[in-house]
Amino acid sequence: MKKQTPVNDPIRQEFIDMYEETLIDLMEKENDVSLSEEEERSLRVNAMVDTALHVRKDLDPLLANKLKSLENLKDYKQILLSEFKIFGFIPKASAARIFAEYLLLSLLDDFEVEDRIDFDVFGNEVNQAFTQMSDDYKELRRVFPWGRLLD
Fold it and tell me: Model pTM?
């Protein structure tokens, strides 16, 4: 029998709230009402990266210390950008939820907790987003269809 992901999970909701607040802040900084689709996609990806960076630094003091160097921070941000770029291709209506699932999954994976998230919660949206990505991105080999994460 397939596991069902709880709808009102407070941790998941916290990720969604953090992402949405970060996105609003970035949009306010842009101060431009007429963002192109590409600019909006880029803002959403940046909001995801910033949220992920914030959460991971909070959880991992060693990482936070390492990222005090601008070069390390830049490198780590590039890794996260490549990892989350696929979410710019997921429909706006479900981006926050799927991002929260993915971020939670990757964080729990770091801490070797495996019984919290079922990949089925992503439905087919990650697969469809992956097919829209450029070949250059696919070459990065970070995110695969079916939610498989490779290191």
Answer: 0.75
